[in-house]
Write a structure and sequence with these properties.
Distance between the termini of chain B: 30 Å
Radius of gyration of chain B: 19 Å
Order of helices and strands of chain C: HHHHHHHHEEHEHHE
Number of strands of chain C: 4
Helix content of chain C: 40-55%
Largest sheet of chain B: none
Largest interface: B-C, 65 and 52 residues
Shape of chain B: globular
Number of helices of chain C: 11
Strand content of chain B: under 5%
Chains: A alpha/beta (about 300), B mainly alpha (about 250), C mainly alpha (about 350)
Number of strands of chain B: 0
Number of helices of chain B: 9
Largest sheet of chain C: 2 strands, antiparallel
Distance between the termini of chain C: 61 Å
Radius of gyration of chain C: 29 Å
Oligomer: heterotrimer
Shape of chain C: elongated
Structural class of chain C: mainly alpha
CATH architecture of one domain in chain C: Alpha Horseshoe
Number of domains of chain B: 1
Order of helices and strands of chain B: HHHHHHHHH
Chain lengths: ~300, ~250, ~350
Amino acid sequence: MENVIEIKNLTKYYGSFFWKKPVPALHDLTLDIPIGAVFGFLGPNGAGKTTTIKLLMDLIKPSGGEASILGYPPDNVEIKKQIGFLPDEPVFSSYLSANEFLDICARLLGVPSRERKGRIAEVLSIVKMTKHAKAKLGGFSRGMVQRIGIAQAILNRPRLLILDEPLVGLDPHGRQELKDIILHQKAGGTSVFFCSHILSDVEKICDSLGILYEGNLLCAGNLDELLQDTGVRLHIKPEHDKIAKTLLSEASETVKLPDGGWELTFLNNKEVKQTLLGIKEQYKDAVIMIPAKENLEKFFFRKIADATRTN
Amino acid sequence: MKGMNEIGAVAAGTWHRILRMRVVYVLIACVLILIGSAYRYDVLSLGQHRALMVDVSLLLNTLAAILVAISIVFEISREFREGVATTLLSKSLGRTQYLVGKLIGISIAGVVITGLIAIGFGVIFATAFDQVAKTMIMGHLLVMASVIPMSALAILFAIVLPESIAAIVTAIVIWFAHSATTLSGIKIIYGGILPDLNLFNLKAQAAYTYLGGIGGQYLLLAFLWGIVYSIFAMSLAGIIFGYKDLK
Amino acid sequence: MKKSLITHIIIMIIAAVLGAYLASLLTVQRLEIIKTGSQLSKLPLGGFNKFTSDVQWMLFINYCGGLSAVKKENVGEIYKRLNAILANDPNHEMAYEMGGMMFSVRDPQKAVEIFTRGADNPNLKKNWKLPFYAGFVLTQHLTDQDDPERLKKAEEMFRKALTRDNSMPHVFSALIRTRAKRIAQRKDWRGIPIVNDKHAYLCALFDEWRKSGEISGAGPNEEVFSGESVTVSDFRPRILEAAQKAKASAPTNKYILRTIDEVVKKVLKDDHLCPKCLTVYGPGDKFCSACGTAVEVYGTCPRCKAVMKGSFCSACGCPQKGVAAKPAVAKPAVAKPPAVKPAAKTLIIKPAAKRVNVPKKQ
């Protein structure tokens, strides 16, 4: 098994009753996530991210296609003992204390009874909720519930961690802690599949990602590969405005620096690249050429904009 | 047995939730007050208050059992709506196991609640009149046993129908399953596919001790029928639930 | 098809079949327990028929409490309410008793119907009052009291009442009176023409004595009775009185004499009776103390003719032969009916059918 998740032509329509027109939620999704990867699944609201996760967790049934998770079909109950899952907007039984809730989860995950107590204390400590162990979940804030959600997801030392919007509801401190937890899990050999809207955080922790738009996968792959060769950044030193003016029309982005210099960004284009190489040759130290790496946010919006235009 | 730990976890969560509700004990206290008040109807009933007390206790205990059974409709619907079921089912828990866990949990809660009412009645009756007769105990035991198939019906409808409709349909079905004695001649269908809850109704026998006893064998068979019918209902619910998309 | 789906379907089918089988077994057992299932209302009351009947009962009492009397105008309403109670609770003893009583004057037919319904209820087979009341209304409150069908029904009801626990001796009297009426109507008793009512009454009593012996299985001349039943402790005085009255009514009538002869030989065979007035006389008596007729002397010493008081003659010491003198309390029977010692013989009416053990009412 090379991949923790293998998805082939997965399709889902909602409300496909005979009196209702089926609403497409996911269309022909094919995706493989390798072992040990931290995979970020991105997309605007309604793109089909949660639908994909629910299909993988067998919470909803596919209209077509197939998926396997850790080498087994999603409806295999036993394999879930090796998966940690945090649902979108988690709500847990409000009458239970954190300890009781985690005890039920541990039993459902097949954690041996002799290890249960210790493991619960451990995960509560990881999510910094030890002092709230005996408090009722009903009285918890959104962020505290999210922390308990993360605790129950890592309770069984999963081989695969599936997180649906894990950063929502957490304060900046909490977000940092969660990122540390994910990276810690990764270091321990756990593969992570998660979706999020907070692109800056995704960029920091993911090594691969996929972008979903209206049920269609726009792109997927290693983060470095996806953001590679997006263009060239030209740093022009002060008092060389002439050079900048000749290139302004070609640049995709122009920034006048406080010291009077310029920073121009050019998208990948063979002709432009030739022109820039010529300028570098001509002005030597007055310009510095740096391969421009598009940030995830820009990449994401560009992909979405392209997809919108195509539609 | 494989899966029993998971079922036990769901069941424990369910009965803990119900038995931790203070309102349950307030209602039990109200029921016992109502049972005790039957003693004051000696004049109005021309001395029939003894049988009346037994009958009122059985009536209220049956209503308590029905309410407990219907409560599972709201419990399951709430878990679906809020996503608690999603969390549970994302663990190593089969869908049918989830339903069976719910059934066991609600049945235990129901048996505890109806048992408390029965014990309370016993104390009241023994104080007001004399020793509780065996048939009265049997009558209450039958009511306690009826919680199981009624809960199974409630779970089945909770899976198939929206919350409020499921509760109403469950109440109607339970009502008619207690009433449709004329259907008892229809073999296979009645008692097999359609529920015959009248099998748990021997209230007159409990109220009038001179009518003759209710044998232990009958109680055992009725309990067994409840289990078998619940298996039928749970299998059907499991099939439907297996294809259901969760929130 | 997926394996789990097939498993679910198989389990479902097995459970449905097994459930139906168990339900059919339970339905039979339940009907055996409740016995009155067919009488129960078919209204869908959610199994709360008994409670509905309790409420209806209290409303009924409330309604009846507001009535000054049971009149023609309210008979229909009372009957309707009573029927509703009994449809939901066919075992409501008090509803049968009280309801029937309410109708007994204004509408005896309805009273009889209600009492009979209660009397026929297998769950109320220990209640002797319901059949007795039915018989009583049939013989006392209906205008055509001598209707043979009604008398037959009344006799059945009285007989039913007699077979039930704690039945009273006056039920026996009512039965004999009704039986006598029927015998008088037939004008024939086992080939003997019935002369008058007193003759019929004697025949009725004799019939009952024979019947109790036959039921006991020990034959009509035996008196070995046991078990649950009504004890008519003054049966012998009754039959003796009936014989005396019959004889007084027609002293020379051969049919009456034939009947009396049979009664004396079989029922009163151990008593020493005056052949003329049938008064019981004591040991050593030579003449009847009531009519002066010479009677056959008994209970005297064969040697000195003194009255024997024990195993030996107290006058001459001669040992007694045969049975010791039977003590008897006799009274002149000219004006007042004679009586024998009550405990001497007891008629026990036993039920014809095999008894079913039912726990006693608490």
